[in-house]
From TrEMBL:
Pfam families: DHC
Any one Gene Ontology molecular-function term assigned to this protein's record: heme binding
Annotated protein name in UniProt: Diheme cytochrome C
Species name: Romeriopsis navalis LEGE 11480
Keywords: Signal
Signal peptide: 1-31
């Protein structure tokens, strides 16, 4: 009888494939029903702005650098937001011990690196066709941040407070409309 009705392998392989597909479909269906119950959903990452009134929230990995920047730089003058000057200016300023004619106190190497990382991340790049500005008014970035603003007097870091009354606490969001 086996010669009259030979079994074809095709049927066996067809059954095997059918069983695999059914198992996959059932497994997928069960997984869809169970997944929401057992899945661990992590909360979304929220970047908390620091208590300082910066324009942009500072990521936690740069907050130490910001704190050191404010501690070391704002002790002598108003600390400018990093976006005002290009990266190269900031890097040159923190490397140089002679700062606008004054001798800076020595900052530990690690602290200087933290400040540098913060300033690099939050400042803007220098164009290839421009020179490194060391004065705020010569920086393209300052001009871009103050479009069509009639400045009341010559701009220095100390006169920022005439328009930004809370600049001494690194809050450049608050400003006088005058």
């Amino acid at each position: 009888m086996t010669k009259l009705f030979p079994r074809r392998r095709r049927h066996r392989s067809f059954r095997t494939i059918l069983m695999v597909v059914l198992c996959l479909c059932c497994g997928w269906g069960f997984a869809q029903g169970i997944a929401p119950v057992t899945a661990q959903v992590s909360p979304p990452v929220v970047v908390e702005p620091t208590t300082v009134g910066t324009v942009d929230p500072v990521l936690s990995r740069y907050q130490r650098g910001q704190t050191l920047y404010l501690k070391n730089c704002a002790s002598c003058h108003i600390a400018l937001p990093p976006a005002v000057l290009p990266r190269q200016t900031w890097l040159n300023l923190i490397q140089d011990q002679e700062h606008y004619g004054a001798k800076l106190p020595d900052i530990r190497r690690f602290d200087r690196q933290q400040i540098g990382r913060y300033l690099r991340y939050y400042s803007r790049p220098l164009r290839t066709d421009e020179t490194v500005p060391y004065r705020v008014t010569r920086a393209r970035h300052f001009k871009a941040l103050h479009p069509q603003v009639k400045l009341p007097r010559k701009v220095t870091m100390e006169t920022c407070a005439s328009c930004h009354p809370k600049a001494d606490v690194f809050n450049f969001r608050a400003w006088n409309a005058e």
